[in-house]
Design goal:
The chain has 7 helices and 13 strands. By secondary structure, the protein is α/β, with parallel strands linked by helices. The chain folds into 2 domains: about 160 residues, Spore Coat Polysaccharide Biosynthesis Protein SpsA, Chain A; about 80 residues, no CATH class. The longest helix has 28 residues.
């Protein structure tokens, strides 16, 4: 069983190398699809692979499907540049490689490191993702944000976690929320959804309540409080931008150029 590791990138010089190191023991090859980064991303990738492709951005799902199409082997491990295989997950995958699994894919929990601690609640854990799968049984779907992997066949759960270093700090979190709220507003607009006053008033409050109380964010201390507040804020901004789109009568391009 040989595994092609696929990663899509854009200006990931700070995080990419750690991701590539974490898969070096399990990868028969590494595929990097880069969106014309203007930092050292490609230079770093070349230390680990010569299978680097440059491609203009379309959307997350399309970019990942293109990356999958370049894989030489029937099994794919899809990783983001801000993710790492934990030692336990790496060992599990190495054991799987010894045979030919009967499953179409494997899911694994993902754990975020945020504001100096591992998040264990707040709706961010276990956040199970299917990342190891047969190439001919899987396809990414979704035109905007939060792409989804659709699998044809049985899924087996693994215990080892993906370590996720998604936000460096609150400033980075806010910047990413701004980008994803653009995409979320576009998706709502494409679905002909309208922004009503209750979306701006009650949905953000419900978002905070859900993540802080129902998802036990309070057990994560200040980090859980920040996650819950910013989740409510993200909901508000998404609908505020939706209202702005309808008012302007035009769509916002998420990635100009």
């Amino acid at each position: 069983m040989k595994i092609s590791v696929v990663i899509i990138t854009y200006n990931e010089e700070r995080r990419l190398e750690a991701a590539l190191k974490s898969v070096s023991d399990v990868a028969a090859e590494i595929i990097v699809v880069d969106r014309f980064s203007n930092d050292e991303t490609v230079k770093i990738a070349k230390k680990y692979t010569d299978r680097i492709f440059h491609r203009k951005w379309t959307n997350f799902a399309d970019q990942k499907n293109f990356a999958n199409s370049k894989a030489s082997y029937p099994w794919i491990l899809s990783l983001d540049a801000d993710e790492r295989l934990s030692p336990e997950l790496r060992d599990e995958i190495l054991q799987i490689k010894e045979g030919e699994p009967e499953y179409a894919g494997f899911s694994m929990p993902r754990q975020v490191f945020y504001l100096g601690k591992w998040i264990r609640h707040s709706g961010w854990y276990p956040d199970r993702k299917i990342r190891l799968f047969r190439k001919d049984k899987a396809c990414w779907e979704g035109e905007y944000v939060h792409e989804k992997l659709v699998i044809e066949g049985k899924i087996q759960k693994l215990k080892g976690v993906i370590h996720h270093f998604t936000y460096r700090d609150i400033r980075d979190h806010l910047e990413r929320l701004n980008m994803f709220s653009d995409l979320g507003a576009q998706k709502l607009y494409a679905q002909k959804k309208k922004c009503r006053w209750h979306h701006l008033l009650f949905l953000p409050l419900f978002g905070f309540t859900k993540y802080f109380f129902l998802k036990a964010g309070f057990l994560d201390g200040f980090a859980g409080f920040a996650i819950s507040v910013l989740h409510g804020y993200a909901v508000f901004v998404r609908y505020a931008k939706l209202r702005e789109i309808w008012k302007k009568g035009e769509r916002i391009e998420p990635f100009p150029g």
